[in-house]
């Protein structure tokens, strides 16, 4: 069962952390007359939900809305905002803790590409979007 403290911690890191840094950096860039590209990483579970990710999904949904809102407000300053929403991506650390028996991976590979994503795929997209 998720505690209130756990909820607040995840939302504070994911949503509030992203907002505070983005707003501070963006305002400084606007004052300096410089444009920039901002990139956030979200997740597909913000659209359909998934077990055990409620605080992360809620916070990442907020990040997505923040990116869209700032794109509309700050485009006139040469600011661009993108958000990547990868599906499940294999990482050794997360998989060893969250999916030790491999059941999640079995479900994840039933998606469109029939496998989990890989970190270099997300990294390459990030580099492409930030050009």
UniProtKB/TrEMBL annotation:
<dbReference type="GO" id="GO:0008670">
    <property type="term" value="F:2,4-dienoyl-CoA reductase (NADPH) activity"/>
</dbReference>
<dbReference type="GO" id="GO:0005739">
    <property type="term" value="C:mitochondrion"/>
</dbReference>
<dbReference type="Pfam" id="PF13561">
    <property type="entry name" value="adh_short_C2"/>
</dbReference>
<keyword id="KW-0560">Oxidoreductase</keyword>
<dbReference type="InterPro" id="IPR036291">
    <property type="entry name" value="NAD(P)-bd_dom_sf"/>
</dbReference>
<protein>
    <recommendedName>
        <fullName>Reductase</fullName>
    </recommendedName>
</protein>
<dbReference type="GO" id="GO:0006635">
    <property type="term" value="P:fatty acid beta-oxidation"/>
</dbReference>
<dbReference type="InterPro" id="IPR002347">
    <property type="entry name" value="SDR_fam"/>
</dbReference>
